[in-house]
Amino acid sequence: MAGPKRLPAAARFAKLATMRDATPGNGHHHGWETAARPGRSRPDGGRAGVVAVLGIMGLWLAATGCGPAAGPERIPAGGRWVHRVPPGTALKLALVPNSCSRFWDLARSGLNKFEQETGIHVPMLCPTRGTLDEQRAILERLEREGYHGVMISVVSPEEQTPLINRLAERMNVITVDSDAPQSRRLVFVGPQHYDMGLAAGMAIVRLLPEGGEIAVFCGELTAENFIQRLQGLSDAIRNHRIRIVAKYEDRTDLDRARRQVAEALETHPELDLLVGLWSYNGGIIREVLQERGLAGRVLAVAVAEEEETLQGIEDGSIQCGVAQTAFDCAYLGARLLRDLALQGPAALPPGGVINTGFILVDRSNLHEVRETRRRQSSY
Fold it and tell me: What secondary structure does DSSP assign to 58-92, as a single string?
């Protein structure tokens, strides 16, 4: 004859743990005392037994994986933290650009390629007006939602370093395209912007062998990518009788950017060349020069990362440009965030930088550049 049916271990533990203590005369049955021999009492009133069973139950839950999920492990790495997640964690990663300019279209393609390879979806969350406050709000939302990693194109490194440092206490933070070098971000993924500026400056020296006056345009004067590009350009034109007479910041407002190009031409009628150091500046410079019949008379050099700038190089409104690719920044950045979350500090690249490089663009290699962009945009 079969014996009484035994409850599963977890149920037996739960049943034991819910038995309540009772003192004599309180009218409650004391479950523990039913197992004691008559005339003997438990000095602890049974409370220690409940605690012991709860402890055993906790060990059983942990051993079977039924307890609370463990959070990421925070591992020190060179004065910073790498956050490694437990096996089987569904990763939450994101890209937060510095604007919604068309430069970032290829970044979305890079993230698409990463998703096709890994099955991990990485949202790209753009600040629609490109402001510091918008970017801060997006990053704070990711913090609240428990993201494991984020890549940021930093609008203003000095102002954002405290926020980046706070995020770095909870998740893996890397920068792409525009850095915050004094923060506790783990890695910068992007080109050497000083070298980009140096290449642009050397092109300007060739275009203005007798010297001349130039004006420079950008989205944010405080962005690290602009600061480094301008420094490289300035070093290249030094001692060549080329003078920067004006610098304009449009705060990623395209209408304002267009007005500023017109203002520069009116305020400085002797301008010889215009320099666009953010991705959309070249297309706007081309448009204004053509409207005023100045294309080819006032020269132009620009960051060549949007089709309008490439059209300017093709039709001669823009003499040449320098180009990186947002595709590589996003794709390599996403791979790095995944590897940091799964492998920990072993995934850190030497020197804390992944250099994505850049190229000088003119009519001689324009077809090749467009073909690369076409291939990348197919993802």
Answer: HHHHHHHT-SPPP--EEEEETTEEEEEPPTT----
The Cα 366–Cα 356 span in angstroms is 19
Q: Which of 293, 335, 275 is nearest to 149 (CA)?
A: 335
239 burial class (0-12, 13-18, 19+ CB within 10 angstroms)? exposed
Ordered by where they begin, the domains of the chain are 73-191+326-357 (3.40.50.2300), 193-323 (3.40.50.2300)
Q: How far from 270 is each of 13, 114, 215, 243, CA to CA, in Å?
A: 88, 48, 11, 12
CB burial string 3-28: b at 16+ within 10 A, e below: eeeeeeeeeebeebeebebbeeeeee
Measured on CA atoms in the order 312, 315, 320, 326, is the torsion positive or negative? positive
**What is the rounded CA–CA span in Å between residue 134 and residue 84?**
29
d(CA 295, CA 78): 52
pLDDT digits 0-9 by tens, 56-78:
444 444 333 444 457 899 999 99
pLDDT of residue 64: 38
Q: Express each pLDDT in 329-343 by its tens digit.
A: 999 999 999 999 999
Residue 249 has pLDDT above 70, yes or no: yes
What global pTM score does this model have? 0.81
Report which secondary-structure segment, H or E, holds 174. Answer: strand 172-176
